[in-house]
Specification:
Chain lengths: 113, 113
């Protein structure tokens, strides 16, 4: 089972920041927070990952709380092309004992004009 | 550079038949993972191969098997197909066995009738 809890769906206005929350209260010290997204009919796309410090790349920012029990993915200026299902995944670098990423159901983000 | 390529993109099989799905990872990537995604769910892990050895296996029956070739491409085989095997089959490649940034292909849409 996924170790994360995400809202089922969210809406965001085009051009505004999209803030996607994720709860991972049972995260272990060596586990990272990964974010992937899946646009309809495509394979998942890596966005960002982090351990405890906030991270930023060209796609998004990842804010992890100090106790590491929750995080927020921020898309600073959402566009219609950001409409997708966003998955928050908690895992060590090697995908845990089985070597895999465990996907939950994710958050369906709808960016509206 | 070519991304992860999967073939075929779509196929239809009859119950009881066998199917082989193929994946070519990004050049230089040595790890390949397979995931099954049924409609409305997140991807579910099937296998991971790294340096031609199985590193992890998900909770799938023995009808599912895979292998990785010396050029790091991979095949997923499913025997005795069931209607419930209808899904999008995704292949992900990464440079090493670490999941720092996994790249997914577009998937193979398998329909079992």
């Amino acid at each position: 089972d996924a170790k994360t809890t995400q809202p089922t769906s969210m809406d965001c206005a085009e051009g505004r920041a999209a803030n996607l929350p994720c709860n991972h209260s049972t995260i272990s010290g060596n586990e990272y927070v990964y974010w992937y997204r899946q646009i309809h009919s495509q394979g998942p796309q890596y966005i960002i990952h982090g351990l405890k410090n906030n991270e930023t790349n060209e796609m998004a920012s990842l804010i992890i709380t100090e106790d590491r029990k929750s995080s927020t993915l921020i898309l600073p200026h959402a566009t219609l092309r950001d409409t997708a299902v966003y998955y928050c995944i908690v895992s060590d670098l090697y995908g845990g004992s089985q070597g895999n990423l465990i996907f939950g159901k994710g958050t369906k983000l709808s960016v509206k004009p | 550079d070519a991304g992860v390529t999967q073939s075929p993109t779509h196929l239809i099989k009859t119950r009881g038949q066998h199917v082989t799905l193929r994946c070519s990872p990004i050049s230089g990537h040595k790890s390949v993972s397979w995931y099954q995604q049924v409609l409305g769910q997140g991807p579910q892990f099937i296998f991971q191969y790294y340096e031609k050895e199985e590193r992890g296996r998900g909770n799938f029956p023995d009808r599912f098997s895979a292998r990785q070739f010396p050029n790091y491409s991979s095949e997923l085989n499913v025997n005795a197909l069931l209607l419930g095997d209808s899904a999008l089959y995704l292949c992900a490649s990464s440079l090493t066995e670490q999941y720092t940034e996994a790249f997914f292909g577009q998937g193979t849409r398998l329909t079992v009738v």
